[in-house]
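Final report, closing paragraph on structural work. Over the funding period we assembled a curated collection of sequence-structure pairs, and we close with a single example.
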Amino acid sequence: MAIEAPARTRGVPRYLFAAGATRLADDMAPLAVTSLMLRRGDPAVAGITLSAYTLPAVLSGPVVGAWLDRTRHRRLALGANQIVLALVALGLLLFAGRNPWVPLGLAALAGAGIPLTSGGFSSLLPRLAPPESLPRVTAWDAATFKAAAITGPALSGTFAAILGPETAMVAIAGFALAGFLGTGLLPVTVDRTDNDARPGILAAVRNGITHFWCTPPLFGATLTTMLGFGAVGMLAITLPSLCT
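Its predicted structure, as stored:
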């Protein structure tokens, strides 16, 4: 059922808080995890653990995106992902340097939910803002990505340098829980979705991949972005390793 534009617009500040806090926690994670593993292990272990955090999203992204388009419980899924991220951050504090396999599993578990942190939140916007406000709200949403990408590593590095990487991991858990609380305050209408006929999840994933490969502008932009972010991501391992 349609809702009035003013009511929908009032949910946008809550959305920006929830999305911003969660994305900040997510962008703090690579440097914080690396610093923690370097303190308790070695560069090889740090690199493997960080890979376990980042690589699962390559496979989970298309599936999670197709599922979110069909579920009536987007808000619940986003909230659950934030709880997982907080628990993984605290779990790494407990097991890093003590067990070589548990941190890998924890990192992979959190990494599989990265698509929820990014596109998953953005998928809520059409249900929170009226069409005439959507371009402006989308711009603010994009700003949370940039702000988190800049502030997250800076906070992780500051916490790790002054108070230790353990404090950075606790901060990640705190921001994730703040995002969880913010998500819980979003209007319940964001959990509703149209019950139209759609192809199955696997068919949607196949169609999406086909469209990606057959659309040169999309393929080129994605490839360029991937290479750029890949180079930036490598700094999370190389810089702390050089400085130790």
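The longest helix spans residues 5-40. Residues 1-7 have pLDDT under 50 and may be disordered. We thank the funder for supporting this effort.
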